[in-house]
Automatic annotation (TrEMBL):
Source superkingdom: Bacteria
InterPro entries associated with the record: RNA_pol_sigma70_r2, RNA_pol_sigma_r2
SUPFAM superfamilies the UniProt entry points to: Sigma2 domain of RNA polymerase sigma factors
Location of the RNA polymerase sigma-70 region domain: 24-92
Protein name in the entry: Sigma-70 family RNA polymerase sigma factor
Length: 194
């Protein structure tokens, strides 16, 4: 298990190692691909757009300074919005896209408004993607029974005594698993998810 409580963002800001950058890409490539692929006119460009987003993210990360809760998501959403705007400009001349262009462009521009439904959905999907990636990392660091106790109690919401009975452990073991793994996941996602 990783001993440091320094977040991924802090490690990257302090001359992140290759594995820190790799972890950032592992988190964001699938999330970005899912988001971009949800725009029908941009599906054919999705790989290129995702690559551009990641390049900008990597280039700009060393200068990013977290100023408030949610500022990293806002930073990322701005990068995505700008890359989507560039992609829409390339698509504008496509005759197939003519009828759908304005609707999709309006949809994309909602990302500029943090209180829009599109931005709220972006934030929700972001947080889910980051949480599940962090959970998969933590899962690989612990014994299977520890993970089962955490998952059943903390994620699925089963009572600690029911989980203890199912797994043949004490209630204290279940509660410790929840506490320890929750703390570890929080360490992993600190700054990325509020």
């Amino acid at each position: 298990m990783q001993e440091t409580s320094v977040s991924l963002l802090e490690r990257i800001a302090n001359d992140g190692r290759d594995d820190d950058w790799q972890r950032l890409i592992e988190i964001y490539r699938p999330f970005m691909y899912q988001r971009i692929s949800s725009y029908p006119l941009l599906v054919s460009q999705s790989e290129d757009i995702v690559q551009e987003i990641l390049c900008v993210l990597i280039r700009e990360m060393p200068t990013f300074h977290r100023r408030r809760e949610g500022s990293f998501r806002a930073f990322l959403r701005t990068i995505v919005l700008n890359q989507l705007r560039y992609a829409m400009r390339r698509t504008k001349g496509n005759p197939i896209a003519a009828g759908q262009f304005d609707r999709l462009n309006e949809h994309i521009e909602q990302l500029a408004d943090p209180s829009s439904l599109e931005s709220i959905e972006f934030d929700h999907q972001h947080d889910q993607a980051v949480f599940f990636h962090a959970a998969s990392i933590v899962k690989s660091e612990v014994k299977p029974n520890t993970w089962k106790a955490f998952k059943k109690h903390a994620i699925e919401g089963q009572g600690a005594s029911a989980v203890a009975t199912q797994l043949g452990v004490t209630v204290n073991v279940v509660l410790l698993a929840k506490s320890r793994l929750t703390r570890r996941i929080r360490e992993e996602i600190r700054g990325l998810v509020e």
